[in-house]
Design goal:
With 250 residues, the chain is an alpha+beta fold. Helix content is 20%, strand content 30%.
Length: 250
């Protein structure tokens, strides 16, 4: 099975399975504006879009997309997003309190953006395909390799896009990325029991509840108890991939 560092799509490709059909993963491909078709990424404001869709190349040369979202795409958060992101975060304070706190000043945004340059953390804007508006943010934090191969997951919608299903579609794409490209085994989400919208979202994606931890996280001036939800790769229907090279052989 091949896993080349680069490929003809212009971005980093990973071969996920061999045999008659080959699946390639497109990550942040550099595609000229207006290009469509096999290997093309969607152009979006503030940076190259991350389609995180799989393209199947069969012997006839036809391509089809699987696991993609018709309404949203993912892209990295970049410095040019600052003003729009901060404005949306301020407009969403009432929606997020007391569950989640986004940067609402330029200084907070710069510190927040710096997190995604550190090893073990990845962040994605969920954007509406039609127009590119920001619908929310999803982060993968505390990535631990070795025998654990796990990470924590957090997410929040912006108020103008809340309740429209965009975050459900975006989170599904992030799960694909985490289990296929990062080759993680497990993702965990910690959610306060009264945060019913977040609980509905993880249930919809197939997470299982694994317990409750009192006084788990310091949020809004107090230690808050959280339900612990998780999903493993075996609980999804994604195609098999080679284990991450840091996983011990036994």
């Amino acid at each position: 099975m091949r896993r080349p560092a680069a490929g003809p799509c212009g971005g980093r490709l990973g071969w996920l399975s061999g045999g008659r059909d080959e699946w390639c993963w497109l990550k942040a491909a550099a595609v000229p504006p207006g290009r469509t078709g096999r290997g093309a990424a969607t152009e979006s404001r503030g940076g190259a879009a991350l389609s995180f869709s799989m393209v199947q190349n069969d012997e006839a040369g036809a391509g089809l997309r699987a696991g993609d979202s018709a309404r949203v795409t993912l892209r990295p958060l970049v410095a040019g997003d600052q003003d729009e992101f901060v404005a949306l975060a301020r407009a969403s304070v009432g929606l997020h309190h007391p569950w989640y706190f986004m940067p609402t000043t330029r200084e907070e945004f710069q510190a927040y953006l710096a997190r995604f340059r550190q090893p073990g953390t990845e962040g994605f804007l969920v954007c509406v395909r039609d127009g590119g508006a920001m619908a929310g943010i999803v982060t993968i934090d505390s990535i631990v390799r070795g025998r654990f191969q796990s990470a924590s997951l957090s997410y929040a919608a912006f108020a103008p896009a809340a309740g429209r299903g965009y975050m459900s579609e975006g989170l599904a794409l992030v799960l694909q990325y985490a289990f296929q490209e990062l080759r993680l085994h497990r993702l965990e989400a910690s959610i306060q029991p009264a945060n019913q919208a977040s609980l509905r979202l993880v249930r919809r994606q197939g997470f299982r509840q694994e317990g409750y931890s009192p006084d788990m996280l310091f949020i809004d001036g107090a230690w808050r108890g959280h339900e612990r939800w998780a999903i493993t790769r075996e609980m999804t229907g994604f195609p098999p991939v080679d284990p991450h090279p840091t996983l011990p052989a036994r």
